[in-house]
Design goal:
- By secondary structure, this protein is α+β, with helices and mostly antiparallel strands.
- The protein has three domains: 249 residues, BirA Bifunctional Protein, domain 2, CATH 3.30.930.10; 64 residues, Rubrerythrin, domain 2 (Single Sheet); 96 residues, Rossmann fold (3-Layer(aba) Sandwich).
- It is 34% helix and 27% strand.
- The strands form seven sheets. The protein has a seven-stranded mixed β-sheet. A five-stranded mixed β-sheet has the order 20-19-21-22-23, with helices on both faces.
- Helix 2 crosses helix 11, helix 3 crosses helix 10 and helix 12 packs across helix 15.
- The longest helix has 19 residues.
- It is globular.
- The protein starts with a helix and ends with a helix.
- The structure holds glycyl-adenosine-5'-phosphate.
- Glycyl-adenosine-5'-phosphate binds next to strand 10, strand 13, strand 16 and helix 11.
């Protein structure tokens, strides 16, 4: 556990415009964060890489379903009855906690997917060791399941009795549109539907920065496959999803597989890809074999036939589903933790984000050596314009001395800095500085963009 590293990352994120605490000027709003300019670029890179990885499949469709849906969707999916966190209240100071988190502190493992009865039994066994983290008293009530679905008042305009929820996951939008996509005609089983979008959960204790938020973003893919071919397809997807993290440049030794111990009754198998965050190993992505549960439930609740006629095998069946589901926010937290480093360059300490070049929010920074020399500034503006035609995003920076500008770019992970100096005015070359080594080489202005592009495409 390296909580000081997490604190350093949180502070860097604020200082350098990656992530701002939500509603900060009004005292904050727990579990929400705003992406700053750098965070917005990083988020864009994550979504782009994930989308491209999904596009590598021949039979992959993309969808953008709505956040508000009919309440029946969540009834069918089981979210209304079973999507909850185990909550416990301190009888003394009335603060609410997640029972599994309190147990975790004393080394007792309680899976968040356990039933209310199971978790109450474990909680009761440990009661005498459990202190309230706020008031220190040992006086907790009973553990109760608290629904994670966030409600809205939208439905009240149309139907007084029906609650309208904000979606708790993007997956249901895929299931309810599976027949629509299939009817396009050029998709046949096996095929996948992928979608990126916001999800909302009424987390009791949002924590660990971007790890557990109330409003977050998911990148989910449901692969519809025949029951016979599903087990092999599941193994293929597992391999593929782990390989995907090479594209992001994540350290291999920080990733591992973890199988679910308590499978939900309908799941055939469930594995998570875990990352070693500064607070320990925890879930990054779920790769789950869900059988025909979701489509069968929607068939039951909607009355719409979800079966598929397989021309090849002449069989009718409800397709099985392999799901891959990863959060954008958790991916970004992983990228920040993986890239964060401190070293010394030219006798000075520096903080550096060693992003793989394709993930770096800013690809290059262009500087005039001196701010007060109009010839240098003019030439640097020209170089900036030229490079920007081919590489984006890049920045122009003439604030502070050159050393300060390098430090600033190192801290946000910019792979290259391009400096226009007095030699540039004579020979049309610039210095190109490498973030990781600090090495500088002279490059012709016309070649700068292609050198940077090669690094990004590596
Ligand atoms: N459709 C399956 C599903 O939603 P999940 O394990 O609840 O499964 C999938 O969520 C992924 O979404 C997680 O692996 C994680 O990356 C992300 N995620 C879930 N809850 C989150 C939260 N409160 N904050 C940030 N990311 C979250």
């Amino acid at each position: 556990m390296d909580s000081s590293k997490l604190d350093k990352i949180i502070s860097l994120c604020k200082r350098r415009g990656f992530v701002y605490p939500g509603s900060e000027i009004y005292g904050g709003f727990a579990g929400t964060y705003d992406w700053g300019p750098l965070g917005t670029e990083l988020r864009g890179n994550v979504v782009k890489e994930w989308t491209e990885a999904m596009e590598d499949h021949e039979n992959m469709a993309f969808l953008d379903s709505s956040i508000f849906t009919a309440a029946k969707v969540w009834e069918a999916s089981g979210h209304i009855s079973g999507f909850s966190d185990p909550m416990v209240v301190c009888n003394h100071c009335h603060t609410k906690f997640r029972a599994d988190h309190l147990l975790d502190v004393i080394g007792v493992v309680a899976d968040e997917k356990m039933t209310e009865k199971q978790i109450n039994a474990i909680f009761d066994e440990s009661r005498d060791k459990l202190h309230c983290p706020v008031c220190g008293k040992k006086n907790f009530g009973k553990v109760a399941a608290k629904s994670l679905l966030a409600t809205s008042n939208l439905g009240r305009f149309e139907d007084e009795d029906q609650e309208v929820y904000l979606r708790g996951e993007t997956a249901q939008g895929i299931f309810i549109n599976y027949k629509n996509v299939l009817s396009l005609g050029w998709y046949s089983i096996p095929f996948g539907i992928a979608q990126v979008g916001k999800a909302f959960r009424n987390e009791i204790s949002p924590r660990q920065f971007l790890f557990r938020k109330r409003e977050f973003e998911q990148m989910e893919m449901q692969y519809f496959v025949s029951p016979k071919k599903a087990p092999a397809a599941y193994e293929d997807w597992k391999k593929e999803r782990m390989t995907y993290y090479d594209r992001l440049g994540v350290k291999k030794e920080k990733l591992r597989w973890k199988q679910h111990e308590n499978l939900v009754f309908y799941a055939k198998d469930a594995w998570d890809i875990q990352y070693e965050y500064p607070f320990g190993w925890n879930e990054l992505e779920g790769v789950h074999y869900r059988g025909d549960y979701d489509l069968s439930q929607h068939q039951k609740f909607s009355g719409v036939d979800m079966a598929y006629y397989d021309e090849e095998t002449k069989e009718r069946y409800i397709p099985h589903v392999i799901e891959t589901s990863v959060g954008v926010d958790r991916t970004i937290l992983m990228l920040l933790a993986d890239a964060y480093d401190e070293d010394e360059m030219n006798g000075e300490k520096r903080v550096i984000l060693r992003f793989k070049a394709n993930m770096a929010p800013i690809k290059a920074a262009v500087f005039p050596l001196l701010k007060n020399k109009p010839d240098l500034v003019k030439k640097a503006r020209e170089v900036y314009g030229l490079v920007k035609k081919e590489i984006r995003p890049i920045v122009f920076d003439d604030n502070g001395n050159i050393g300060k500008r390098y430090r600033r770019q190192d801290e946000i992970g910019t792979p290259y800095c391009v400096t226009v100096d007095f030699d540039t005015l004579q020979d049309d070359t610039v210095t190109l500085r490498d973030r990781d080594t600090g090495k500088q080489e002279r490059v012709k202005i016309g070649e700068v963009a292609s050198v940077i592009r090669k690094a990004i495409e590596k």
